[in-house]
Design brief:
Layout lengths: L7 H19 L4 H5 L5 H4 L3 H15 L14 H10 L4 E4 L6 H7 L8 E4 L14 H10 L5 E4 L5 E5 L6 H4 L1 E3 L1 H7 L9 E3 L1 H4 L3 E6 L6 H13 L1 E4 L2 E6 L2 E7 L1 H5 L6 H5 L3 E4 L6 H11 L15 E2 L3 H16 L12 H20 L4 E2 L3 H6 L1 H5 L6 H6 L1 H21 L5 H8 L4 E2 L6 H8 L20 H17 L3 E3 L4 E4 L3 H32 L1
Parallel strand pairs: 1-10, 1-11, 4-7, 7-10, 12-13
Antiparallel strand pairs: 2-3, 5-6, 8-9, 14-16, 15-16
Helix pairs in contact: 14-15, 14-16, 15-16, 15-20, 20-23, 22-23
Length: about 525
């Protein structure tokens, strides 16, 4: 995105920074000052789940967007999350990869208070009015009203952990630190010798565990008492910490429901089970990809402007259709899913290839083409898992077939009723045309004008004689690629379009195969007659 010439955004950023610093400076810094502020014991006595609930209710009444940036879940997933928060539930998001599960969990921080006080230096972020750690209790007993107060932002109150088989109880809950015990001359059973894990450090916040089924069984068991009773015990010592934590999870549906992947008692303690999903239609997917993909490219700091990017809508449709087609293809593993990151990364690569072509030829306008989608093959093959049949065919072959199918589907939306016989006839008479990145758009357009009736058929794409060469070439290539997908013409790997394979050649091949089968049958019958003669 080009930088504003007046650099007003810097002034806005500095103003916001100063406002934040002023607000931070106005917050109480001692326990005595905190008592005289709006942060009363009653307000801080709320649990995290009550805080989430109250702020959510305020959001609902003011008609604000609950989870900005989350597209396609307004009528499905979001209402279920709202119900879970209103019910003060710990909940789990079940969905395949690339369904915004982690983003939704992180977005829960928008429902937390903007500032939350705690005892400065406390590892478990104690409530100043009701500390649960010995460190904070001793500090208040020594300093009284002068006890220092620090403040937490919503993001600092969110702790996230990716579950892996090597996660230990000490990682989540904590362990005894013998070095700390020796240096402080404390007994091993003292709270002051404890090294707290992630969960106690998430006290008065949200603790998210991604891919919960990957946790070992004994670790899942360690979560039982925390979720049910709200406290932890470390190394068998009677150190009880009544934590105030909202715990949320994410998981793959198959791992979650498979026997042995998640222990039943833990599953029973999860209040709500919410299933996410992929976009329900192409346009919804386009909205997500447009939001997430880096397609509005930045102007260089040296002042040299990169080519202007214009992405035709049919290119966006094809890129999104690739993901939809892959999710239905029997050669693609449906249990693994096809992430929404596939069209996002594909679109970025498509734009980059168009940008590279424009910069190479000194063009000021970069318009992606269908050929750029084939150039983005490396970004697609790494996003899909293949079944056995797909592995035998090869990832590149399967992806090329998927792209061809996607092109055909989008082609039919624009040219289903278009008569392309005149174009086919031009190729049947021996005409060929090559479209690649080696020549500028103007030269490619000159070649395309030789094809009778081609440019006249581009009206459904809002392309006419006044359109830029880059736009016309992209539209014409889309039409030719669609005809190729429907086998009306053919295209070589060198991107040379030519006539379709003659029907008589197909017939000749079929006739030859039939003659070979008849010959084999005659030879087989002759061998059998010879064997009967010897008997």
């Amino acid at each position: 995105m080009p930088l504003p010439s007046d650099l007003s955004f810097l002034n806005q950023a500095n103003t916001a920074k100063h406002l934040y610093l002023d607000m931070a400076n106005s917050l109480p810094t001692t326990l005595g000052a905190l008592r005289n502020s709006e942060y009363t014991p009653e307000r801080l006595a709320r649990s995290v789940k009550d805080e989430l609930r109250e702020n959510l209710i305020a959001r609902l009444r003011s008609k604000e967007t609950l989870f900005p940036g989350i597209v396609g879940y307004e009528d499905t997933v979001v209402p279920q999350i709202v119900n879970a928060v209103l019910s003060r539930h710990n909940f789990i998001l079940l969905g395949l990869r690339g369904q915004a599960k982690s983003r939704i969990l992180r977005a829960l921080t928008t429902l937390l208070d903007p500032h939350t006080p705690y005892i400065a230096g406390s590892e478990i972020r104690d409530n100043p009015y009701a500390p649960i750690s010995k460190y904070s209790r001793d500090l208040i007993a020594r300093l009284g009203e002068e006890t220092p107060i620090a403040w937490l932002t919503p993001n600092e109150r969110f702790v996230e952990k990716l579950a892996t088989p090597d996660v230990t109880v000490a990682d989540l809950v904590g362990d005894i630190d013998p070095i700390k015990a020796a240096r402080s001359n404390q007994d091993l059973g003292s709270e002051l010798t404890m090294h707290y894990g992630l969960l106690p450090r998430a006290n008065r916040g949200i603790f998210a565990i991604n891919e919960i089924p990957d946790l070992a069984g004994k670790i899942q068991v360690a979560l039982f008492n925390i979720m049910q009773e709200g406290d932890v015990q470390i190394k068998g010592y009677p150190v009880r910490l009544p934590l105030d934590v909202a715990i949320v999870f994410s998981a793959n549906p198959e791992d979650y429901t498979a026997r042995g992947k998640i222990v039943t008692p833990l599953k029973d303690r999860i209040g709500s089970e919410i299933r996410t999903h992929y976009p329900e239609d192409i346009e919804e997917g386009i909205r997500i990809t447009t939001q997430e993909a880096w397609s509005d490219r930045y102007t260089g700091n040296d002042g040299r402007s990169a080519a202007k990017i214009e992405i035709p809508h049919y290119i966006r449709q094809i890129v999104e259709q690739i993901a939809f087609t892959a999710r239905e293809d029997k050669k693609v593993d449906k249990r693994s899913g096809v992430s929404q990151r596939l069209p996002i990364t594909t679109m970025e690569l498509v734009v980059s290839n168009a940008e590279r072509r424009a910069l190479t030829h000194g063009e000021q306008l970069a318009v992606p083409r269908v050929g750029d989608i084939y150039a983005a093959l490396p970004g697609i093959t790494g996003k899909i898992e293949l079944e056995y049949e797909g592995e035998m065919r090869g990832a590149d072959t399967v992806v090329r077939e998927i792209i061809r199918t996607a092109v055909a589907a989008v082609f039919d939306q624009y040219f289903a009723g278009t008569d392309t016989q005149q174009i086919e006839q031009w190729f049947n008479l021996g005409g060929t045309v090559q479209l690649n990145d080696a020549q500028p758009a103007a030269a490619s357009l000159t070649e395309l004008k030789q094809i009778q009736g081609l440019l006249d058929k581009l009206t459904p794409l809002d392309v006419n004689g006044k359109s830029a060469p880059e736009t016309s070439v992209s539209a014409a290539e889309f039409l030719l690629e669609g005809m190729t997908a429907h086998k009306r013409i053919s295209r070589a790997e060198e991107r040379i379009f030519s006539a379709a394979e003659k029907k008589q050649r197909v017939d000749q091949a079929a006739q030859y195969a039939e003659r070979m089968r008849e010959r084999e049958q005659e030879e087989y019958g002759a061998r059998n007659r010879t064997r009967r003669g010897f008997n």
